[in-house]
Amino acid sequence: MTTAALPTEEAASILDAEELRAWLRLAHAKGLRPLALRTLLGAFGGPREVLSESFASLAETADASAAEAVLAPPPEIEGVAFEHYIEAALAWTSEPGNHLLTLADAGYPQALLTMPDPPPLLYAKGRLELLQARAVAIVGSRHATPQGLEDARRFARVLSDAGLAVVSGLALGIDASAHRGALEGATGTISVIGTGADLVYPAAHHTLAHEIARDGAILSEWPLGTPARSANFPQRNRLIAGLSGGVLIVEAAMRSGSLITARLANEMGRDVFAMPGSVHAPLSQGCHRLIKQGAKLVETPEDVLEEFGFSSASAAVTAAKRAKPRPVSGSWASARVPESAPSDEANRVLDALGHAPATLEILATRTDLDGAALQGALLQLELSGRVAALAGGRYAAVERP
After folding, report:
1. DSSP 3-state helix, strand, coil percentages of the chain (rounded to 5)?
2. Boundaries of each Smf/DprA SLOG domain copy (predicted)?
3. Who has the most CB within 10 Å: 180, 299, 375, 382?
């Protein structure tokens, strides 16, 4: 009787490379929509299985155009032959802090899975755990006023200190100030970019991008080497909205990309916040329009925190916990925030958790709560010691003593 040999490290790396090759081929296949690819992956189990299916099977599961896209020869990617691009991608992921995340990875941002068509593959640099954090987006004009820049930085710092990751787009103006403020806070920032993850745009933000890659996270769905193209940025805005439980617009003219982000956030069931300003200021007009359409008017960071389920006291406690290590000695009860009766939403989440850990996506399905309400309920339960956040974006109920 013979025993099968365990795979060698070299064989394991070849398997990983082949799996990556299949993901890259499908993720960048021309004409294959993310929703169609997700349908195929759900039906057949993985990218290599999808690629091994017949045209008829693929067409029956998705449609003829998806089948044609899957079975087409591997495409050039940004002018680079597919096989050479695979080599470049593998070399890029071998560098410290660089990651390729697929829909099958535990590190894939759970918030994006609540979108109908999440990108099948993401290029990430920096702290992967930040991609699972509760997040708020702060965006606005590239031509912001000094007051707008200061407001964005201050709000971002306070929200980061309270435990929220701040998401923005690395653009000039409000975006850059939001990133800087969040880096000054306790949690950090996520930059969603409209170029390849190996490029920085605008060039003036090289130092800022380096700081974010070191202390936060940079995320892109575009292939390596993709330059800045105007058509990419509305799609980038879609990911900013998808990652966040709410979007804050600080300053925006009537024709502003920030309003696209706000519209996308609203369509995804995320909260939209807007800061008011002078009726005579052009950069207040977009915010005023959003407020007329139902966006929440905010004047202080606490206005945002309350919508996320933080009270002023709990936000201060959270910031203090993050600023200093929690003592090893002492009981869990002594470290808890003073308790209040759980909300109806929190009780629904507790019932939905049961006895097994669950992801945000599973809890959203079981409770029918939108993203902001679900995250607020989870925060209340975490602060009261009833729920614990686990690795991989999962949550588990904590047994009471």
Report:
1. 50, 10, 35
2. 100-308
3. 375
Give the residue ranges of DSSP H helices in 77-145: 82-93
Domain that holds residue 173: 128-307
Same structural domain for residues 173 and 54?
no
Contact status, residue 182 vs residue 157, Cβ threshold 8 Å: yes
To which residue do tokens 């052009």 refer? 282
Residues 286, 341: one domain?
no
Q: How far apart are CA 237 and CA 169, in angstroms?
A: 8
CA distances from 328 to 67, 190, 376, 400 (A): 56, 30, 28, 20
Q: What is the pLDDT of residue 255?
A: 82
Distance between CA atoms of 75 and 26, rounded to whole angstroms? 10
In a domain, 5, yes or no: no
Q: For the segment 307-343, what is each residue's pLDDT rounded down to a tens digit?
A: 998 864 445 445 444 543 333 222 222 233 334 567 8
Q: How far apart are CA 300 and CA 398, in angstroms?
A: 33
Q: Per the domain annotation, does 142 fall within a domain? A: yes
Residue 100 placed within a domain: no
Phi and psi at 152, nearest 5°, equal -60, -45
| Residue 121 belongs to a domain | no
Residue reference for tokens 């040999």: 5
- Predicted TM-score (pTM) of the model is 0.74
Nearest to 125 by CA among 236, 243, 241, 220: 220
Determine contact, residues 153/180, Cβ cutoff 8 Å: yes
Mention every residue, 6+ apart, whose C-beta is less than 8 A from residue 389: 382, 395
Q: Is 393 buried (19+), middle (13-18) or exposed (0-12) by CB count in 10 A? A: buried
* pLDDT surpasses 60 at 59: yes
Q: Which of 70, 94, 118 is the last residue of a domain?
A: 94
* The total number of structural domains that make up the chain: 3
Is residue 171 located within the same domain as residue 254?
Answer: yes
